[in-house]
Amino acid sequence: MDDGWENRRRRVRDSNDWVRFRLPAQGAVRAVEIDTAYLKGNAAGWIALHGRDGESGDWFEILPRTRLQPDTVHRFVLDTEAVVTHVRLDAFPDGGVARMRLYGSPTKAGTAELTRRYEESVA
Predict the structure, then answer these.
(1) Per-block average pLDDT, block size 10, for the chain (123 residues)?
(2) Is the pTM of this model over 0.90?
(3) N or C: which end of the chain has fewer CB within 10 A?
């Protein structure tokens, strides 16, 4: 996220807003950073992070529903790496997130895909 994301206020029970990201290529995520900088009264109360590998298929949990503090950088090292092409950030029940950063590296298949697309672009 660049300048952050703040969703609309939501007071509907058992609902939340979310945002989905597509990575440039398949990657192995090892750590996550959720930053609520400058969001003092309107930061998301909780977040959860899910991922999936490919355009279709089931979403799986990367980071369970986790409590956030306002105006704070939250860092999470994953117990096992998550191989994903898509990531979904859920905010409960509403609020803002200044930045989300994923730390990891492309997989072998991801690197091959990036190389192929680069070679096609310069050919």
Answers:
(1) 61 80 97 92 91 95 96 96 97 88 98 96 90
(2) no
(3) C
